């Protein structure tokens, strides 16, 4: 790996998860743990992308409706559903996904910038795309997943 | 080609240009932004300016009508040596009237295809190939509804676009659900970066420039470059229809 870094093409590890037919990847260094679906308590007056809160060993963690965030139709949770606990800019949040797939290694050179034809703001958290097993893998930049205002709002729950 | 033009015609052309400019200037700001979202910004190249090739298409120096099915000769458009002369006085006007791709200067092969119920044509030189739409594009979150997603094809990552929405805008187009009404084929652009979905590929035909009513002023809907007079089929300048990939 150090040799790769010297060549300027570092290898990164990504946790992949599924939402509908699409597969997404997030930086493994930002994933704290993966939970089976548990009771999520709704928060009155929360934005639509907030599903609610969970008690994680005495800590209150906000769970984001990732489908809502990505503009996908909602779906009932099932046995495969998972809450991925992530750390983003010192905030610990959970993201609900349809399923968690695997951890993959990828070179930086394998990642291509996703075409952005819309509002810069609406898709700024898309870091890039790459192909994996004949399927497109969409890489998500968790640090941009929520805006600063949104993160501040989550602190109030 | 005329060497001199009567002053009356010059004035008439100037008046027409002024009127056209007024119409374009009057487009409300809100409409312009909607337009900008629905259709990509105008790309000026490749261009062949009227100044360089004066009135090759539009003036009386048109080639003899030898079109596919003896189409009626297109009524000469407003661009003429007179217009070019007038335009020299106003460089901005010259640009507005002279942005024509090179393929429009000569007879070209065009692909006729159907999007929903609409028949369109586009020059073959602007396409690299067509592929069967046998899989659902991978959707990228946060993108406009006319961007249907990405498809990997022969080492190319193609952005698939909803042609209907690009042409009619989101409000007027039927928003296509690919699961309920899958498209038939994807027309891949020459740079292999974009794909336009279509419902049916009809034919390939030759089009001669004088069989087309060209749109020379195309600030609005720059992709609509002209209409085949015989078939009344819109000719789409694909380069102007697809977005500029960031």
UniProtKB/TrEMBL annotation, chain A:
<dbReference type="Pfam" id="PF01584">
    <property type="entry name" value="CheW"/>
</dbReference>
<dbReference type="InterPro" id="IPR002545">
    <property type="entry name" value="CheW-lke_dom"/>
</dbReference>
<dbReference type="GO" id="GO:0007165">
    <property type="term" value="P:signal transduction"/>
</dbReference>
<dbReference type="InterPro" id="IPR036061">
    <property type="entry name" value="CheW-like_dom_sf"/>
</dbReference>
<dbReference type="GO" id="GO:0005829">
    <property type="term" value="C:cytosol"/>
</dbReference>
<protein>
    <submittedName>
        <fullName>Chemotaxis protein CheW</fullName>
    </submittedName>
</protein>
<dbReference type="InterPro" id="IPR039315">
    <property type="entry name" value="CheW"/>
</dbReference>
<dbReference type="GO" id="GO:0006935">
    <property type="term" value="P:chemotaxis"/>
</dbReference>
Automatic annotation (TrEMBL), chain B:
<dbReference type="InterPro" id="IPR036061">
    <property type="entry name" value="CheW-like_dom_sf"/>
</dbReference>
<dbReference type="InterPro" id="IPR002545">
    <property type="entry name" value="CheW-lke_dom"/>
</dbReference>
<feature type="domain" description="CheW-like">
    <location>
        <begin position="107"/>
        <end position="246"/>
    </location>
</feature>
<protein>
    <submittedName>
        <fullName>Chemotaxis protein CheW</fullName>
    </submittedName>
</protein>
<dbReference type="Pfam" id="PF01584">
    <property type="entry name" value="CheW"/>
</dbReference>
């Amino acid at each position: 790996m150090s040799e790769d870094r010297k060549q300027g093409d570092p290898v990164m590890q990504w946790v992949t998860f599924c939402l509908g037919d699409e597969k997404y990847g997030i930086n493994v260094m930002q994933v704290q743990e993966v939970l089976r679906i548990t009771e999520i308590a709704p928060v009155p007056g929360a934005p639509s992308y907030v599903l609610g809160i969970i008690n994680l060993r005495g800590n209150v963690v906000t769970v984001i409706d990732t489908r809502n965030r990505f503009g996908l139709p909602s779906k009932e949770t099932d046995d495969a559903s998972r809450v991925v606990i992530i750390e983003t800019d010192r905030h610990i949040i959970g993201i609900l996904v349809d399923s968690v797939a695997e951890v993959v290694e990828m070179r930086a050179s394998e990642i291509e910038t996703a075409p952005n034809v819309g509002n810069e703001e609406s898709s700024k958290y898309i870091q890039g795309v790459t192909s994996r097993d004949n399927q497109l893998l969409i890489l998500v930049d968790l640090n941009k997943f929520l805006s600063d205002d949104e993160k501040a709002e989550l602190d109030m729950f | 080609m005329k060497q001199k033009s009567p002053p009356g015609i010059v004035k008439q052309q100037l008046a027409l240009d002024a009127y056209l400019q007024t119409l374009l200037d009057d487009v409300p700001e809100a409409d312009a932004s909607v337009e900008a979202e629905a259709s990509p910004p105008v790309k000026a190249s490749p261009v062949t300016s009227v100044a360089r090739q004066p009135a090759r298409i539009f003036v009386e120096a048109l080639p003899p009508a030898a079109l596919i099915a003896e189409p009626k000769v297109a009524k000469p458009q407003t661009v003429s040596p007179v217009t070019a002369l007038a335009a020299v006085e106003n460089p901005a006007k010259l640009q507005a009237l002279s942005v024509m791709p090179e393929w429009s200067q000569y007879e070209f092969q065009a692909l006729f295809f159907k999007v929903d119920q609409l028949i369109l044509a586009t020059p073959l030189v602007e396409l690299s190939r067509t592929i069967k739409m046998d899989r659902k594009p991978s959707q990228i979150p946060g993108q406009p509804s006319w961007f249907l997603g990405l498809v990997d094809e022969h080492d190319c990552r193609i952005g698939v676009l909803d042609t209907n929405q690009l042409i009619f805008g989101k409000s007027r187009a039927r928003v296509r659900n690919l699961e309920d009404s899958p498209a038939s084929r994807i027309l891949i652009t020459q740079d292999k970066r974009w794909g336009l979905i279509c419902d049916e590929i009809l034919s390939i035909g030759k089009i001669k420039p004088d069989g087309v009513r060209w749109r020379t002023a195309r600030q609005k809907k720059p992709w609509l470059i002209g209409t085949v007079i015989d078939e009344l089929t819109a000719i789409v300048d694909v380069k102007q229809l697809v977005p500029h990939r960031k």
